Amino acid sequence: MGSATRRERVVRMSVEQPLWRALTAYRVLTVVYAIGLFASAYEVYERPWVGIAYYAVLAVWTLATLPQVSGARRCTKRFLTIDLAVAVTGILLSPVAGHERAVTGGSTLPSIWTAGAVLAWALKGGWRWAAFASVLIGAANVVQRGDISRSTVHNVLLVCIAGIAIGYVVEVARASERTLARALEIEAATRERERLARDIHDSVLQVLAMVQRRGTALGGEAAELGRMAGEQEIALRTLVAEGLRQPSRASEDLSQGAVVRAVTTYAEADAPPGTEGPRDLRPLLAPHANALTTFSAPGTAVLMPSAAARELAAAVSAALDNVRQHAGEGARAWILVEDEPEAVIVTVRDDGPGIPEGRLAQAEGEGRLGVAQSIRGRLRDIGGTAELISVPGQGTEVELHVPKKK
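Above: the chain's sequence. Below: its structure in token form.
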């Protein structure tokens, strides 16, 4: 199989971003609502010019600061402080405008726009920040009305509970994002190590094993070279196995509100441009046919995604390597390709001595990952499965099953 360069692509998104978009819309709608409420009761204000001046400032402020409420990064403490001051000022100016209902239970000049200021604090800093902003808004309502009425307490508690609840939800969401991001990055690192282990097994380890066997057979100085190659093979297998069992710690340098939405492994093969679409599996497997290996496939193309076809062909190559290495140079092998409606099935069978029970688990424990990574690992990465059936004295059969995506 041609060499492929793989990399992990991490796509990040903020799960709290929809809340910021909702807050942006809320601020615009509530400033329009507050102005409409003032216009409908314009004649009852003794000093309407106070309301007009305040609404002019409020409208300009709301529209000018829309970028600040588009996300946590741009929503600074300075902006939040000024925004809360605008809300408190509007509440305290309500009696000055001369609307009697402002001090007898009616709405204040900013009306429900003040809740948007509290929600901005909640989204930025969590429930503690929300509680602080809510208490300040509540205190301003009590001051402008001169007493603590039932309606005042009701409105203050409503804003306080809503702000604290949203702030708490945001804190929980951020903690979950960090946990999920770390888990997905660990998974990505582990998959990359598995891929490297497969590549090492298919190249370096096979060469070292061959040098060891040939050197031992030749004797003399070649035997010493073979012994050294054997030592390096064992050391490299141990290193690969330990690396797979101990994935590195995932990076926790995450921007606030960012989460790994998906981790996608993909290959950039050295195939010519424009050949990364569906690919016929048969030409990838046909070169294995020789005097000792029989290849059987359908008469029509067995189309698969290009990356999946390459991985499946590599798994077949690994299975045949195992035949040559463990069944002997004279062992016969058969490759059967079946193109079913729901899946592509490739079976590799040999007439060797078979695999003793428990040998695969023992080999994996010794760091020999040919079956675990070069075969099963590859099939797992493309959504398939690999089943190995072996009866001592009757050969081994490896069935590779790759479902077709609908």
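The chain has two domains: 14-176, 276-406.
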